[in-house]
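Suppose you are handed only two things: the residues of a chain and a line of SMILES describing NAI. What would the bound structure be? This form records exactly that question and the answer produced for it, so the two can be stored side by side and reused later without any lookup.

QUESTION INPUTS
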Amino acid sequence: MNIHSKRIAVLGGGNMGALLAKGLVASGNYAPEHITVTRRNIRLLDALAKDGFHVTDNNKVAVASSEIIVITVLPQQLNKMLDTIKDDVDPEKHLIVSIVSGVSGHDITSRIGKEVQVVRAMPNTAIAVRESMTCIATGNASKANMELVKQLFDTVGETIEIHEELITSATALCACGIAFFLRSIRAASQGGTEIGFHAAEALHMAAQTAKGAASLLLTQKTHPENEIDKVTSPKGCTIAGLNEMEHFGFSSALIKGIIMSANKAGGLYTEDK
Ligand SMILES: NC(=O)C1=CN([C@@H]2O[C@H](COP(=O)(O)OP(=O)(O)OC[C@H]3O[C@@H](n4cnc5c(N)ncnc54)[C@H](O)[C@@H]3O)[C@@H](O)[C@H]2O)C=CC1
Ligand SMILES: O=C(O)[C@@H]1CCC=N1
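ANSWER OUTPUT
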């Protein structure tokens, strides 16, 4: 079965829900009229409605008219939302895709009270430019449904399948990771401004340099240190700058931040229950 022919309900049209809906249409593989986006205040979905998406504040209506249910509410909003749709979820018809951090597939089926297939997906905000690193995992979905979900997220970036117990780690590394890399680009641009470039110019230069660094690794499949070795001339300015950063804990700060995010992500649902 081809996922492009299926109707999709995106329950919770906030940042990620709206970005995902728009990204799917931007891929050219989905028509907006096949996607229903919900939000409690639907006036905030006016722009999506103008673009041809169905919008509603009624999750039951969205579920009834779709085969794929993508859950994009916050962990602390999930139970209330699931309680409103559980009577309408049909395990024979529906596949649930949840991007909600810290919530297992089992948490969802328990709350709904039905053994519906659930795939967890962890995309990042780069779905807006179809460059997401999305990890998918499941405890009970069929291979065919995993393939359907992979097809869906492949249209907005790259998708890999991982074990469900690693999805919290993927949240920290890839979903939160976007913010970590953005902050490092901003910091680089601030350094650039201090040494002579206008802020906008420095930001553009830093962002393109970061893109170049990522592209080197993705296209050459080399290790970062191999690429770093090519930049660091003996007694040169690169190694001087790098070592200064390491004296201030650059690598350590990133590692500690990622571990902190993973710990926090793992508890997002239970701490609000
Ligand atoms: N922001 C990100 O980069 C990522 C977020 N996630 C996960 O995605 C989920 C959404 O995150 P964001 O988009 O950042 O949050 P958000 O707060 O922007 O979006 C949640 C939306 O759900 C709506 N909502 C809440 N209850 C509802 C209900 N009963 N019916 C319909 N709509 C309802 C809210 O009004 C809001 O617009 C979270 O669970 C988060 O852990 C996952 C990967 C990346
Ligand atoms: O900050 C958060 O909790 C969400 C989950 C991953 C990215 N944003």
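WHAT STANDS OUT: Strands lie at 8-11, 35-38, 54-56, 68-71, 95-98, 117-122, 132-138, 157-161. The CA atoms of residues 63 and 89 lie 7 Å apart.
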